[in-house]
Design brief:
Length: 343
């Protein structure tokens, strides 16, 4: 096997064979170059597809007696254990910092609210409210990092909020705000996701010795702790007992929970590979594929659809997210991407 770019040089070919050798090298280098460019983007695309489908196994678990928050605790625990095993050599780079506590808090809030919202609410409405992240990212970056919003950022905020208002407004209910707990959970998850993104940027600046994988580890620790803290609001002790009973007595239930936790951990590793090699603005655009997967899967698996006004509002939100990637501003914090925290 030949390692490209290792600096080693073999014997010079004979002059008569130089043309053939050059042609052969060029032909073999082309597929390698295509793979190097396509593999990271494909990794992010796979991650977006997994997150766009993750709502369904959580609903399956809920139907089998494992409520949303206990299921989230279970799958996050599995992911945390696997990440600990995979990244055990990086544990020594962790340092005590309130910034990491903030990452754990924001990540835990994101995941608990997202899982609960997509389990109990309309998947697409919850997801679109979650993708108001450009709004929250700009505001948190202004408050916590001192970065200006600017005309471009203000325009994206207006576009995203206008789309949310169009999607949520109904004459009977008055103000265009989330109409049920599931939609509120989606909005809270999006705000927490944006806060997590800004805090991760602060961590990378203030704690450069903390390995990137340990930020993910901290996040999933926050998911477990956050789930335990809100457990009293989703069945409490009784709900936990029912979940333990369902997991211990049903092989299929335990298998789904275990497989989902392993998939989450593996997806995190795969997406981190892609995010390390793809520009942030391009990654943000690829992440929007999650909405496409969620729209198709929720229509097919849950018979959920959107009306014309909801579709128009959703397109405004998606456009704001897309433009935040297409028109990046180096002086502003990048919009949150799903690679930083999800289910």
């Amino acid at each position: 096997m030949t390692v490209a770019g290792n600096g080693a040089r073999g014997p010079e070919p004979a002059s008569g064979a130089s043309s053939t050798s050059h042609h052969s090298t060029g032909a073999s280098a082309l597929p390698a170059s295509l793979y190097a460019r396509a593999a990271p983007a494909l990794a992010i695309l796979i991650g977006s597809s997994v997150w766009g489908l993750a709502w369904f196994p959580y609903r399956v678990l809920a139907g089998w007696g494992v409520a949303a928050v206990p299921a989230q605790i279970c799958t996050a625990s599995v992911a945390l254990v696997l990440l600990t095993l995979v990244y055990r050599r990086s544990l020594g780079t962790l340092r005590w910092s309130w910034l990491l506590v903030g990452v754990a808090f924001a990540g835990g809030t994101t995941n608990v609210a997202f899982v609960w919202g997509t389990t109990h609410g309309h998947v697409m409405r919850v997801l679109l409210l979650f993708y108001l992240t450009p709004v929250w990212t700009a505001l948190f970056a202004h408050w916590l990092l001192g970065e200006r919003v600017g005309l471009r950022g203000a325009g994206l905020i207006v576009l995203a909020l206008g789309g949310a208002g169009l999607m949520l407004w109904t004459p009977e209910l008055g103000w265009p705000v989330p109409n049920n707990p599931g939609e509120w959970a989606g909005a809270i998850a999006g705000a927490a996701f944006a806060l997590n993104n800004v805090l991760l940027r602060r961590v990378s600046q203030s704690l450069p010795d903390v390995r990137a994988e340990m930020r993910s580890w901290t996040l999933y620790l926050g998911c477990v702790v956050g789930g335990l803290l809100v457990l009293p609001f989703d069945g409490g002790i009784q709900g936990a007992r029912e979940a333990v009973s369902a997991l211990s007595s049903g092989a299929a239930t335990a298998a789904v929970a275990l497989a989902l936790g392993c998939t989450i951990a593996l997806t995190n590793v795969v997406v981190q590979f892609g995010l390390a090699r793809v520009p942030a603005n391009q990654a943000a655009l690829i992440m929007l594929f999650e909405i496409v997967v969620a729209a198709i899967s929720s229509w097919w698996l849950a018979s959920e659809g959107l009306g014309a006004r909801e579709i128009a509002g959703g397109l405004c939100i998606v456009a704001a997210g897309a433009l935040s990637g297409i028109l990046p501003d180096s002086r502003r914090c990048k919009s949150a991407t799903a690679g930083d925290a999800m289910v």
